[in-house]
Amino acid sequence: MSKLTAQDKFLDLSDYGRPFGKFFANQLKNTRFTPIHVTLLFGISGLIAIYCILTGNYFAAGFFIILKSGIDAADGELARLKNKPSYVGRYLDSVFDIVLNFMIFMAICYVSKTTFWFTLLGFIGIQLQGTLYNYYYVILRNKSVGGDATSKIFEYKSPRALPGESQKSVDILFKIYTVVYGVFDKIIHSLDKEAYKVKTFPNWFMTLLSVYGLGFQLLIIAVMLPMNLIEYIVPFFIAYTLFIFVLIGIRKVLFKA
Question: Taking the chain, what is the end-to-end CA distance rounded to the nearest angstrom?
Answer without folding.
Answer: 28
